[in-house]
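check these tokens.
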Amino acid sequence: MRRLLITLTAVLLCSFNLNLPLTQAGQAGSTLVVAVDKDAPTVEFVVNADKVAIYQQNKEHKLLQEIPYSIPAYAEIAANELLSFEDMNFDGYMDVKIAASVGGANRYDDCWLWDKATQQFVMHEELSQLASPVFNPNIHTVRSFTHISATDSEEAVYIWANGKLLPIQKLERSYSNDEKLLIEREYRPDEHGKLQLVREQKVLPEEGMKN
């Protein structure tokens, strides 16, 4: 099996909360400078067809971690879109997203968060199940948007609490065939944290899509 090899070098710069897509890594040997926290090691990612190897970028070139991986061969995805770096839990450390499933409407990534104690990346299952998450470092929220069909969708907003994602808003949109309207349902957590329906209304499709 032919192995795809992309070498990415992550160089430490002493700054925080940088969201930098992997736009410069197109061929073997390409490098990418990424700012991470000052007490994390400089690391180099080597992406193969069956694993991602992570090395400490020093004279010893020590292997820090290996992550089993299968490149999504069925999707049209450029080599420079396999990995991206972002502080996904807003702790000041750069984390890594690895492409897992890339479809026409939704994309899913395996989300690996930097763990200071073990000096390794740890996969976060909840985060990895969100479609195309968007991270807002200013208000520390995570937003996901899932295309279900041309008219139906689901949008949710989360916050971090003790390492877990807690939903603070969920919005469902579904098409009403009989009236040719979109039905919007909004959910908010109650005092126990369980999502409850707080609003339901019908809107014109163009208005729902605008929202």
Observations:
- DSSP finds two helices and 14 strands in the chain.
- The helical segments are 125-128, 205-210.
